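Section: protein folds

Sequence with per-residue tokens
===
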Amino acid sequence: MPRANRMQQLLKLAQSVMREERWKEAIRLLKENSSEVETHWELSWNLGWCYFKLGRMGEARKYLARAAKLAPENHACKFGLGQVYLKTKQYKKAELILSEALRLKETHAARIGLALAYLAQGRTEEAEKTHLDGIRLKPRKSERYDRTRHFFPTSGAKLKQRE
């Protein structure tokens, strides 16, 4: 079987196991095929995300960083690595990589992660601006609006007054 087909089959199988949150089984499957994982960003990302879900941040960082290196313009790779940096309290690194993720693709999750990185560094105004910019970009997305009250009570009140 050609290598590309083998990798696609492995990817589908790994994702199927991951959908059921069988993280250890997915890790075992991917580690058994380490030569494919080393050269394929999606396989590396999946392995890193499994480790992330199990709280094994060192291993998660290794594979998510590899995925980001293999696919430098991929939002998901940057986002996943940013989540590891948040969990390991490396807030400056999280800020940099999540800013990059947002540059690649506007997502609520990346924007919230970036706001959290700013908050953890005591940069409340930048965190608030980041969050409010997301609301301005997609005002009809209620999840963005609803979460404002939790992070920034005064901004939530200001937004409510505008309605």
Summary: The chain has eleven helices and no strands. Residues 1-71 form a domain with the Serine Threonine Protein Phosphatase 5, Tetratricopeptide repeat fold (CATH 1.25.40.10).
